[in-house]
Design brief:
The protein is α/β, with parallel strands linked by helices and 414 residues long. Helices cover 52% and strands 14% of the residues. It is built from 15 helices and eleven strands.
Length: 414
């Protein structure tokens, strides 16, 4: 059973009673009569062939309150897009698939690129951004949840708890972040959150002094979770990163755009497991290594926009402070694991901290060498200003893709 502690910055909605999913869904059905709800699923085609997504779709098909499901499909050929249409037809709710590699969406993307208002990198951030644009275009959902497609422990109660805070007509939350404990197979997981983000935030606060932004970020129990929900109007002004800093960037944007009493976090799962990234000790362009660099740069960029001066000496101080704090956390998490009957590989934990410390310096050097680097994708308000008919064209492209390839499928069957 969770505690009921509130830190006073971001409201925490706990799972105190393990309330049944049917009871939650009955309330959500009532909410949906005046506040339609949607779900965004950013997916790689490979996830359709994995272990997690088929079970996720099976669970979602039973959800009674959704008016719309938006699937962003990356890295799919024409044949694979057709397979995706077949795969998702088992959803009971109205749903649309954005074939991001298809000629229609690529043509629209090229025109946005020419105007300088398109994502510059492939990846989850780009996928999510186009799905958000489609949600704005269709206006079919007012409260929208987003979660990953590799959750091995998925249950539809996760979605119900995630969307509830932004769907309840008497709550005033514009944004909700999901959190949960990370353990599986008798081991404590979530190394980047435990051993990079938490000690780095403590180190930044110690080096930089009191800072409302750092206190705000440190109030999230699992800032790297891929699960959040929001009201549709949030999508107009939010700028999201296209790299591994996506989750940190979204939280930063919400703090920039809204008062703290419009934001919350909610406990969405007793157990959560998903696809694990490689540590990538010797490859800064992949796995947890690249993730740690992107996340650290996201913090540095935000602090720079607040007027903090960052130089090589500052980076060295942050790195040394982080390293000492992170080593102390290894001991803390080891004890936490032991009392819960879990295991922690101390050797791997220390190797992770050593790599993260090195990558703090790498992220700092990259930031100093490219101070004008802007990984944020423009807000949809700016895009609409540059191309007024972009949303209608996006909606039309998605619809035409579906009609064309559904017809081909029917022809092939007959």
């Amino acid at each position: 059973m969770a505690d009921f502690y509130q830190n006073g910055i971001v409201t925490t909605l706990h799972n105190l009673t393990n309330r049944g999913v049917e009871e939650l869904e009955n309330e959500l059905i009532e909410f949906s009569k005046t506040r339609p709800m949607g779900l965004i699923l950013p997916s790689l085609y490979s996830e359709l062939e994995g272990e997690a997504l088929p079970k996720i779709v099976e669970h979602i098909s039973e959800v009674p309150y959704l008016s719309q499901v938006i699937i962003g499909l990356d890295r799919a050929t024409e044949d694979e897009f057709c397979k995706a249409i077949e795969f998702f037809k088992y959803l009971g709710q109205p749903h649309q698939i954005l074939w991001n590699d298809g000629p229609r969406l690529k043509q629209l993307d090229a025109e946005l690129q020419a105007l300088g208002v398109a994502p510059t990198e492939m990846g989850k951030g780009r996928n999510v951004w186009y799905c958000m644009g489609y949600a704005l275009a269709t206006k079919e959902a007012e409260s929208i949840a987003l979660h990953d497609c590799d959750i091995l422990t998925y249950d539809r109660s996760l979605l119900a708890r995630l969307i509830y805070p932004v769907a309840h007509p008497q709550f005033n939350y514009e944004f909700c972040k999901g959190y949960y404990a990370r353990y599986s197979d008798g081991k404590l997981n979530g190394r980047v959150a435990r051993l990079l983000v938490t000690p780095l935030l403590k180190a930044l606060k110690r080096v930089m002094g009191h800072n409302d932004y750092l206190d705000y970020m440190d109030s999230y129990r699992y800032s790297l979770s891929g699960e959040f929900s929001f009201r549709r109007d949030v999508l107009n002004d939010i700028r999201i990163p296209s790299d591994w800093g996506l989750e940190i960037g979204v939280l930063s944007e919400m703090q920039r755009n809204y008062a703290a009493n419009r934001l919350c976090q909610v406990d969405i799962a007793n157990v959560y497991d998903h696809k694990h990234q490689d540590l990538s000790l010797h490859n800064s362009e992949g796995g947890l290594s690249k993730m740690s660099i992107d996340i650290t740069k996201a913090f540095f960029r935000k602090l720079a926009t607040q007027g903090y001066t960052l130089n090589t000496e500052t980076m060295r101080t942050i790195k040394a402070t982080y390293y000492r704090i992170a080593l102390d956390y290894i001991e803390t998490y080891k004890n936490d694991a032991i009392i819960n009957g879990l295991k922690v590989d101390i050797h791997t934990e220390e190797k992770s901290v050593e790599m993260f410390a090195k990558n703090i310096m790498a992220a700092g050097q990259s930031f100093l060498e490219k101070p004008m680097e802007t990984p944020f994708i423009p807000s949809w308000n700016r895009v609409i200003s540059a191309m007024p008919d972009v949303l209608s064209r996006l909606e039309e492209a998605v619809e035409e893709d579906y009609l064309e390839f559904s017809a081909k499928l029917r022809k092939k069957v007959s």
